[in-house]
Specification:
Blueprint lengths: L2 H19 L4 E8 L8 E9 L1 E9 L1 H12 L9 H23 L4 E3 L3 E2 L2 H6 L6 E8 L2 E11 L1 H7 L6
Antiparallel strand pairs: 1-6, 2-3, 2-4, 2-5, 3-7, 6-7
Helix pairs in contact: 1-3, 2-3
């Protein structure tokens, strides 16, 4: 996976978490996976089609998601409240929106599908057809995982490959 696809999402999540948690987030782990994805908390998935294809999973420990929900609502939120899973989707919207703007500015054309809560069935299927980069962001309220499985569409990669002149 190319760093130029990953970096906009890392930067966007870092900025959004710092604002919502009123504290910096630190990347404490980086891993590559090819197997199915195992949720660690409340997770949202966003799909991409076009010159860039694949998916992004934003996975938050319940305490971290509740902290963000509290920021968005202006009240204290318990991790068990029904608004907390919706918050994970809203946070994914913010992160993806910021990253997509950067990718669009670089000329990529693709469709982004709305975030949805990641089900156990989707977890079992995720990752079997592509390699994913998984980053763990540590925050004072809990960990947030960003699972990135994106690639250039085949036609786009041919456009980037130099042709040899014989």
């Amino acid at each position: 996976m190319k760093m130029d696809l990953i970096q906009p999402f890392i930067g966007a999540l870092d900025a959004v978490l710092a604002e919502m948690m009123h504290a910096p987030a630190t990347i404490v782990d980086l891993a590559m996976e090819e197997d199915g994805y195992r949720k660690r908390g409340l997770a949202s998935v966003v799909m991409f089609k076009g010159q860039i294809e694949g998916r992004i999973v934003l996975d938050m420990e319940p305490q971290a998601a509740a902290k963000v929900a509290g920021y968005l609502t202006g009240t204290d939120v318990d991790p068990g409240e029904s608004i907390v899973p919706e918050t994970v989707c809203e946070l994914a919207n913010m992160v993806i929106g910021n990253a997509v703007t950067q990718l669009n500015d670089r000329g990529f054309q693709f469709k982004v599908f709305p975030p949805s809560l990641l089900t156990e069935e989707q977890c079992a299927k995720a990752g079997h057809d592509s390699e994913a980069t998984i980053l763990c962001f540590e925050t004072p309220s809990g960990n947030v995982h960003l699972n990135i499985a994106l690639h250039y569409h085949a036609r786009r990669s041919r456009e980037r490959t130099p042709l040899s002149v014989g």
